[in-house]
Amino acid sequence: MIIGLYFAAAIVLIYCIYICFIALKVTPDISINEPIVNQKISIIIPCRNESKNIGLSLKSISLQSYPKSNIEVIVVNDYSEDNTVTEALKYKDIVNLIILDNKEAGKKGALTLGIQKAQNNIIITTDADCVFHRDWVLSMVNDFEEHQLNMLCGPIQFKALNSIFTKLQQAESAAIVGISAAMLNAQMPATCNGANLIFNKLIFEQIGGYTSHQNIATGDDDLLMHTFYKLDNKKVKYTMNKNAMVTASANMSFTEFLKQRSRWLAKRSFYIFKYNQYLQLLIFFHLMSFYLLIIWCVFSFNYLALLCIVLKYGIDILYGLKLKQIFNFKLSLILWMPFYQLYIFRVLLYAKFNTIEWKGRLVQNK
After folding, report:
1. CA 317, CA 311: separation in Å to the nearest integer?
2. 223, 284, 292, 348: most buried, per Cβ within 10 A?
């Protein structure tokens, strides 16, 4: 039993060292140069059955501080079965809008079509259920141009409603983005989100676009980022400029949440940088160790177990304070995160025994 205690304590200590490393790397980005507003850009929005969201997204784009004459918006309808196109057309006189019908079913097919038809070399991808800070385009373009990048990944956050479930998703999302940004900027690419990417169209075509991972329905974000990084690791970056923030909708249903996390899990077996698998194991075993230490303290009080629990919470709160400089979430939610993250075990079982679908389409996870 004592060996188990020492093992759990060692895992939690390793986790704390890792989070300290991440926390030190998480700092808000602020552009200090004169704003760049003369670059023409194309925003690609693939959408399938997004009639409830596409209008808010296009309205948010119409309110951008970046010159509207330099923004082309391409909405690619991916075989929607609702009024997505009708809702989008309401904004044709407000933004420079082009609507295309996808020729090849799937998000990557929709994105590829939009990128092919784009008139500009600077591409931004986002999702139809997102809204944006008014300086989103300005901030992304400035950081992209200032560092002469091939790809720039931007921050996202979830919109939390009154439920504790959505608020926990908001806090967890901030933590994931912080880890993703710190890892990429430390030359260890992990994840990013396709709802906030900007990249060079010519380089996208040079690396073959999504062809290296065309056989899965997800991965249009981090798998593409890995391919960009492999081509030139000096020209891929993650910005933590809060003005570049994209806000997406949190899952209201736990079942939908499980499906989302299962999709995320599906693409990770395709990661080309194997240390990501070790990172997943660290997160998994640190949670198991945390639960073991809690049980130890409840049934057989132990100062080492208590010290590890206090240390873990202290480091997590330190990380939360750094994240609060960029994201909106309640710091107190960090205390509940380890218990909320019990869903990890449910996701593993769900992914193993259920068919994973995304908007009615099979997600390959083998």
Report:
1. 10
2. 223
Residue 347: closest CA among 219, 274, 260, 252? 260
Amino acid making up residue 94: I
Residue 355 phi/psi, 5-degree rounding, is -75, 125
**Per residue in 293-331, pLDDT tens?**
999 888 888 889 999 999 999 999 999 999 999 999 999
Cβ neighbours, 10 Å, residue 101: 12
High-pLDDT (> 90) share of the chain, %: 69
Q: How many CA atoms lie within 13 A of 293 on its CB side?
A: 26
Domain borders along the chain are 2-25+273-360, 41-268
41-268 CATH: 3.90.550.10
Say if CB 137 and CB 41 are below 8 A apart.
Answer: yes
DSSP-based helix, strand, coil % in the chain, nearest 5: 50, 15, 35
Give the torsion through C-alpha atoms of 107, 112, 117, 118, to 10 deg: 90
